[in-house]
Each structure stands twice: as structure tokens, then as C-alpha cells.
Design a protein that fits this description.
The protein is mainly beta. It is built from five helices and 24 strands. Strands 16, 17, 18, 19, 20 and 21 form a six-stranded mixed beta sheet that branches. A five-stranded mixed beta sheet has the order 2-6-5-4-3, with no helix packed on it. Strands 7, 8, 9, 10 and 11 form a five-stranded antiparallel beta sheet that branches. Strand 7 and strand 8 form a beta hairpin. It is globular and about 60 Å long.
């Protein structure tokens, strides 16, 4: 009863402050299509999908052109976040068949945030590890690791962390996405602060009290320990060497109620676009553009909002992946939960001609 009253009051509060800060309630894409995960692998909740990354690739199997890497996250269980490969078995790319698990559960810590990158003769799967035995051995808090699949069938476990982060509460590796541009390899990831050191106390009692207060101030958008610095940029001349951090690109025209959490990137007409999950929870999905592949400007109008999804009894909007296909169609995939089942995460797709998307966002 108390929780229901609190949710209602929070909903009314958000309806009040959204217009004050320019957060739009409605997006331009609302027709969600549920995707299916078919087949079977010996892995718990393998059909639960978060962190999808979808790319066109014919290296793993000549019969199938579109591949996805994702992790399960059933019941918010981080021990399940172990990357799985799947391929589309239909042209609309709505039915997927599981192929194999890429990496097993670590003995400590967890995996997350997989990404797929394909070029002429190699398909590379990247994933992030947090405080695992491997990161401990590499003297880092978090790192991105990789496995390469060659056209000739060779599988290479990359021996070094391709990107790494030594800070505990700050992270430049969140939700990475990879491209090749002008002959060089680039990685783009969210640069976040998870917690403010000022509010971390050794006294457990004091720490718990302060944490509860900060949770409340975050819900009311008064103060949030989480902070977004923008989109970090990493570069390497070859995938045989680690990426080096270059800079963090600022995101202009960002609503003050947004703390960008996850992303994916794609190229179109010599520009780089990012689809962005705007917050860890109660998120929208928005589009940003970079004309110089470094600095970003966010479109004010969202692609998809949590407010719109509630009408379809959906909640838990999470990390997007997107691309423009050879027909000019913008394919956007997200994870959603049913209001009646917050444990399961299912993959959904939205489609619209990309020129129409841009026209609607520029109105």
C-alpha cells in the first residue's frame, strides 16, 4: 500500500518537473515488435536479453548475415551476465537463434556490456569485466577483453585487456561500441562516475543512512551521485594492440534530467550517430549526432520514452543497439520488461526510415 502511494506521488512529481526541465514525455517511435530467441544452449536463462549489440557479419556462418551478442540478466542477477552469440534466421531480424556462449561466469566479479565488431575477415566480440580474477591479475578495476573469430575458423583469445580503467568509482568503459574510420579503430563508451567519494563512509551505519538519503534525492532529481562526463573516445591503429584513451566528448543539448547510461553508435552519410539510454532507470532512448566523430549534440525529441511504453504495459527500458540497413531503414532494438514480470528481459524492435526519423527529430 505504502509503495503504491509512493509510486503514484513520484509519478505526479515527474509529471510536474518534466516540462520545467524540457524532458519530453513522448517519442517518435512507439510500435514495438517482440523478437524471439530460439534454440537452446546449456546456460541458465539464455533467452533473457540485455546489452544487445547487432552487426552485419558473414564470417561466423556464410548463411546468416546478422549477428547479435547479448547477456542474460534475469532477476538482475549479475552472475548470468555472460556474453552469448546469436544470429537472425529471418529477413526482418525478429527471430534469433542462439549460437554459443562466448565466455563463462568468472569466479569472482562479473561480466557485462558486450559489443560486436566485424570487418572483412574477422569478427571480434568484446565484453567488460568488473573486479574479476583477470582484472585483478591485470592490476585494474575494470577492463574490456576480446575474442576474435577468423574466417578460416581460427579462434583467438586476445591475451591483453584492450581497454582498461584503474579508477573504482569512475569508469570510461561503460557500454562500449566499436567502429573503423579512416583506417583506424575507435571505441566509444560512456564516461561515468558511479559514486561520489565524499559520501563514502567506513562507518556502516552512517553509510547506510546517507545511501538512503541519496537514493531519495536521486529519485527527486535533486542530487545524484551518478554523473555523466560524456562519451569517451579510444583509438588504436590495429586490433593487435590495446586502445588508448584520447578524450571524452561532451554531449550538447542534453536535458538536465538525463544522466546518459548506455549507448551504441553507427555511421550514416559521413556522420556518426549514437543511440543513448538516458538514465540507469526510468530511461528514454534518444539520438545524438557527431559531425567530427568527437563532439556530440543530442536531439531534443526522444526516439522512445518510458512514459509511452507504460501504455503498452512495458517497463525497464534498457540499452539500445541500432543500425541503418541497405533499404535505409533505421532498426532500433531495446530490452523491456512486462509490468507484471520485472524479472524477465525481452528483446524488442522498432523500425522507421532513417530520413523520416531525422525529419521528425528536426521538427
Amino acid at each position: 500500500m505504502i509503495n503504491s502511494i509512493f509510486r503514484l506521488l513520484l509519478k505526479k512529481y515527474r509529471e510536474l518537473i518534466y516540462p520545467l526541465f524540457g524532458r519530453r514525455k513522448n517519442g517518435i517511435m512507439n510500435d514495438i515488435i517482440k523478437c524471439q530467441i530460439n534454440g537452446f544452449i546449456d546456460s541458465a536463462h539464455f533467452d533473457d536479453v540485455v546489452h544487445p549489440s547487432i552487426r552485419e557479419c558473414k564470417i561466423l556462418n556464410e548463411k546468416y548475415s546478422w549477428w547479435m551478442v547479448y547477456t542474460p540478466y534475469y532477476g538482475a542477477d549479475s552472475t548470468l551476465e555472460n556474453p552469448i552469440l546469436a544470429y537472425a534466421i529471418d529477413e526482418p531480424k525478429e527471430n534469433w537463434y542462439v549460437y554459443k556462449k562466448i565466455v563463462e561466469k568468472p569466479s569472482k566479479g562479473y561480466n557485462s556490456d558486450p559489443a560486436l565488431f566485424c570487418e572483412s575477415d574477422t569478427c571480434t566480440v568484446f565484453w567488460r569485466e568488473y573486479e574479476t580474477e583477470r582484472t585483478t591479475s591485470d592490476n585494474v578495476s575494470k577492463a574490456i577483453y576480446a575474442k576474435q573469430y577468423r574466417r578460416d575458423g581460427e579462434v583467438i583469445n586476445v591475451a591483453f585487456p584492450v581497454m582498461k580503467e584503474i579508477e573504482v568509482w569512475e569508469d570510461r568503459l561503460v557500454s562500449p561500441a566499436f567502429i573503423k574510420h579512416n583506417g583506424r579503430y575507435y571505441a566509444y563508451a560512456m564516461h561515468l562516475r558511479f559514486k561520489n567519494n565524499f559520501f563514502q563512509f567506513k562507518n556502516r551505519y552512517l553509510h547506510n543512512i546517507v545511501s538512503k538519503i541519496l537514493t531519495f534525492t536521486s529519485l527527486l532529481y535533486l542530487y545524484d551521485q551518478q554523473k555523466s562526463y560524456g562519451i569517451s573516445i579510444w583509438k588504436t591503429e590495429t586490433l593487435e594492440k590495446p586502445f588508448k584513451y584520447i578524450k571524452t566528448g561532451k554531449i550538447k543539448n542534453k536535458c538536465r534530467l538525463y544522466t546518459p547510461w548506455h549507448l551504441d553508435v553507427f555511421e550514416y552519410n559521413e556522420n556518426l550517430y549514437a543511440v543513448i539510454q538516458t538514465n540507469q532507470s526510468n530511461a528514454d532512448i534518444v539520438l545524438a549526432v557527431s559531425h567530427n566523430f568527437e563532439d556530440w549534440e543530442m536531439f531534443s525529441q526522444p526516439l522512445l520514452t518510458s512514459h509511452d511504453l507504460l501504455k503498452a504495459q512495458k517497463i525497464g527500458l534498457y540499452k539500445p543497439t541500432a543500425f541503418v540497413d541497405n533499404k535505409g531503414l533505421f532498426n532500433l532494438y531495446v530490452s523491456l520488461q512486462d509490468v507484471s514480470d520485472r524479472s524477465s528481459n525481452r528483446l524488442y524492435k522498432l523500425v522507421m526510415p532513417f530520413e523520416e526519423v531525422l525529419a521528425n527529430l528536426n521538427k
